[in-house]
Amino acid sequence: MTPKIIVLLGISGSGKGTQAKMLIDKFELDYVGSGDLLRARCKIDDFTGKKMSSVLSRGDFAPTSIIFALWLKRWEELKNKPDFRGFVIDGSPRKLVEAQLIDQTLEWYEWDLYFRALLIDISRDEAYARLFLRKRDDDTPDAINSRLDLFEKEVGPVIDYYEKQSRLIRINGEQSVEDVHKDIMKAIG
């Protein structure tokens, strides 16, 4: 099987996590989630672990340099995996520099030909409605709007970057979970 390296982009509430799980299950892919890597790093009792814990508890973004160091460690593990099938990156890149670093690193690991950037595209109004209805503690109207603003400001340039290179695949996220999955399957082959 040809490996699949898939970046899933989408505003909060777009269903990235659900689609990531479906892809992982279907193709037996590995998962590279920045949030999981950062939370695991917080458990190490050293300077970076303690500081990262403080940064994340405030709701701030981790520095790209720290996230990238964690990615490199994880990707090296995957490169040495005998039955490597690929992986899904969920929740990153969140900044243009992260997209550029991912490109350089995928080329280094000789995975660049297998890369797909998928945007699960929903409107801001749809995202707000979905987030508000799920009623999590951190889904207050102000917090939701703040996350949506941050996505537009930080991830917007990433979307433009992939689009200008004709590497972005837009998926209509305002349809059923099953139909979104069918469109993703068509797009990635």
Report on this structure:
The protein is built from eight helices and five strands; from the N terminus they run E-H-E-H-H-H-E-H-E-H-H-E-H. Helix 2 packs across helix 3 and helix 6 packs across helix 7. It is of the alpha/beta class and 189 residues long. The longest helix has 24 residues. It has a five-stranded parallel β-sheet with strand order 2-3-1-4-5, with helices on both faces.
Summarize the topology.
Blueprint: E1 4-9, H1 16-27, E2 30-33, H2 34-42, H3 47-57, H4 64-79, E3 86-90, H5 96-108, E4 115-121, H6 124-134, H7 141-164, E5 168-172, H8 177-188
Briefly say what this structure is:
57% of the residues lie in helices and 14% in strands.
The main β sheet shows up as:
5 strands, parallel
| Tally of DSSP β-strands | 5
Strand content: 5-15%
Principal-axes shape call: globular
Q: So what's the CATH class?
A: Alpha Beta
Keyphrases for this structure?
Rossmann fold; five-stranded parallel sheet; single chain; globular; 5 strands; 189 residues; alpha/beta
